[in-house]
Amino acid sequence: MRGSVPQSPFSTILNLRDVGQTVNLLLGLPLLQEGRLFRSARPDDGTPSEKDSLKNTYQIKHIVDLRSKSEHIAQAKKHSTVSSPSSSSLAPHPPASTTVPLEIPGIEYHLINLNGPAFERALLWKLSWRNMARLAYLMTIGQRIPAISILGTHVMAPRGLLGLACDTLAHSTSELSSLLLLLAQPSNYPALVHCTQGKDRTGLLVILTLILCNVPLKAIDQDYLASEAELLPEKAERMKEITAIGLGEEFAGCQAGFVEGVSKFLHDRWGGVEGYADSIGVGEAAREKIRSNLMAGSR
C-alpha cells in the first residue's frame, strides 16, 4: 500500500472518512470517485459545526443509518429528547416517539436496521431451550441488558466478529439487498453510511461495495482496520457497554483477517460477491450502476 488512511477531521463524529479518497491514497491511483461515499460512527454526537460541515463542506445529501430501534432510543435518551417521566428505562417497548434519530435538517435519511428480525431469529435459535426461556423471561420483566447478555455470552462471543458478519450475510439478505439497491441510485449521493461505531455493520456494507468495485482486498482491509485507531477516544466507554452484554474486548476492535474471511465466505457459499448479489436480488444491472456511481471515469 502506498499511502495511509486519513484521520477523521472531527473530534466528536468519530471514524469519518471519504471511502473513495481512502482507497485512492492506499492504492496510489484514482480507482474510485472521491466525495461520493463516506463512512463514520454515529453523527448524532457531532457538534453543530461538525454537522454543518457534513452538509455544507462535504455536501452530504443522504445518510444511511444501519442502527436498530433500541440504538435510536438510547441515543434519544442520551441527548435528552425523551420527555415522558412515566416511561421506565427498563420498559421493553419504549414509546415510538423516542425512536426518531437526531437528524440533520436538509439531509435525507434512510433507516435500515442491518441486523433486523431474520438476523435476530437466527441468533436466538442458536441458544439452548433453557437459555432461550431465561432470555424471554428477562425481556418480559423489562431486564433488557441482562437478557441480551445471555445472547452475548452464549452466541455472539463464540461467533466472534467474523462469524457475526457471516451470519449477517446469510440472514440479513432483505436489508443488504435494500442497501445495495439504494447505492445503485445516482440520486442517493453523496452519501454517508454509519452505524454506532462505523466499524462492523458499516464495515460489512463497505466491504461488499468495494469488492463489487474491484478494489483489491488489501486496500479494503486497510480501510477496515483503520477504524480501530479512530475509535480509541471512546473505547473505555464502549467497553462498559460491551462487557455488560457478555462480550470481550475484541468486540471493541477490528479483527485481523476479517476482510479475507468475508471474501472467503462469499466465495465458498455463493461463488463470490457477484453470486451473492444475484442471490439477494441485486442483479448485474444494479451492480453496474453501483460501479458507475463510485468508480473513477464513470461519470
Descriptive keywords:
13 helices, 299 residues
Describe what this molecule looks like in 3D:
With 299 residues, the chain is an alpha/beta fold. Helices cover 52% and strands 6% of the residues. It has helices spanning 19-27, 48-56, 69-78, 117-124, 129-140, 144-171, 173-183, 201-212, 217-230, 235-244, 258-270, 273-279, 284-294; strands at 17-18, 37-40, 62-65, 108-111, 191-194. α3 links the parallel β3 and β4 (108-111). α9 (217-230) packs across α11 (258-270) and α11 crosses α12. The longest helix has 28 residues, at 144-171. The protein is globular. 39% of the residues are buried. Residues 81-100 have low confidence and may be disordered.
Main sheet makeup: 5 strands, mixed
Helix content range: 40-55%
Overall pLDDT, averaged? 91
Q: How are the strands of the biggest sheet laid out side by side?
A: 1-2-5-3-4
Over all CA atoms, what is the radius of gyration? 19 Å
Helix and strand composition category: alpha/beta
Distance between the termini: 26 Å
According to DSSP, the number of beta strands is 5
Shape: globular
SSE string? EHEHEHEHHHHEHHHHHH
Task: Assess the beta-strand content as a share of residues.
Answer: 5-15%
